[in-house]
């Protein structure tokens, strides 16, 4: 277990939130399925880190629960010209160690982002356009971009600002407790995969949060997480199992809260390599001379083989909606012309015959088995649907910590995962565009999908400064990507939370569950 070496080191035990007394009432214990695997705020662009690290660190801007941009460490910003954004920084902010927040910290943080070794998911896509950060004075910076970057203030919400003195720290040093932010909570202790404990930062520039002490426990088992809530061991849980929702909702001791997710459950296919590691000919058929997943007709067939209504209504028991793109249609920036692919097994089989695979082929689908609600069951269901279309499918579930590193190394031919975005262009540049580390594009494109026409449309959308024209460009890029089946969108999950009476949860579109979302009920 790692502990802060500062004066808060003695604060290591969180009292049960349901115990009595005025002090205990200020304590909050949450159980989450998310597993925090690092304390380095620039190491892994994932759900767990974004959720937990937001207690400790802040960005120049922040995105609220409606996916709207708000000031954070920058109190204002303006576009000087098509290549320059100027940010005015807050003057009343200090790090937890008492040092003042200045422009030097912003410059050092942005410079560190692309230089974190061995990251399975870098934050480079959020600074891909940044050419230089210029210090005007201690509380003014100018971000000079390589070209027009209309979403730069939005992007910088995803980059946590660290102290310049910590900029040379390694991931191992962060994980060993070198943790110093400006946020509402101070780091107390962390045990990898078990829990992180935090103490309120009473000097936070926004004012005091309601919780004096916070413990975020990782309880990956759905049954154990529910049991912890029902016993009073924790104050709230996320990812409420669908089978337990009626029981919890009918219990007067608890409240159930649901919210729309800005996340897509999707399938990625290896459409680039001539030979793919988990694709082979069906028994009795000639050896494959080419990877079938390179054929758009095959990818389309796999999408049409999915009964999304059955997956969302039966498997997910209504806690999901069929998807056609990265964000649900209710959010700004989504294409109004896209609809979820219909379930059409006959057309799927016809496309496979047309592509030259009337007898199908062998394919292994990889997925996490401990990260998303029913992720293992979902992969099995998808495998069965593809089998009915004529393929011979094997499904392999992998722990999340192993899965993403292997996917990044392109060890899979097909995998099922989730990706969350805050704006329509996020998925285009991170998941769809050709992987280009130097340009900060395709950072989450783990199958190395590449299409020059789609790339050109994505770049056009990312560089259009006129808001109305940018929306049109985003729509064209999204529609082209989905026509090519760059990914196969399956569904948008619904976030389900449960807390004890007296508390409320402000759900966010991103996958998050933290003390910043939990408030005393009015």
Quick recap:
The protein has 522 residues and is an alpha+beta fold.
Notes on the structure:
By secondary structure, the chain is an alpha+beta fold. It has three domains: 1-56 and 183-253 and 501-522, D-Maltodextrin-Binding Protein, domain 2 (3-Layer(aba) Sandwich), CATH 3.40.190.10; 57-167, Dipeptide-binding Protein, domain 1, CATH 3.90.76.10; 263-493, Dipeptide-binding Protein, domain 3. Helix content is 25%, strand content 24%. The chain is built from 14 helices and 22 strands. α13 runs antiparallel to α14. The protein is globular.
Question: What topology does this entry show?
Answer:
Elements: E1 2-3, E2 27-32, H1 47-53, E3 61-63, E4 69-71, E5 74-81, E6 84-89, H2 103-112, E7 130-137, E8 140-145, H3 152-155, H4 171-175, E9 185-191, E10 195-200, E11 213-218, H5 222-230, E12 236-237, H6 245-249, E13 254-260, E14 263-269, E15 279-281, H7 296-304, H8 308-315, E16 320-322, H9 345-354, E17 361-368, H10 375-388, E18 392-398, H11 400-408, E19 414-420, H12 424-432, H13 452-463, H14 467-483, E20 488-500, E21 503-505, E22 518-520
Parallel strand pairs: 2-11, 2-12, 17-18, 17-19
Antiparallel strand pairs: 1-9, 3-4, 5-6, 6-8, 7-8, 9-10, 10-11, 12-20, 13-20, 14-19, 14-20, 15-17, 16-20, 21-22
Helix pairs in contact: 7-9, 12-13, 12-14, 13-14
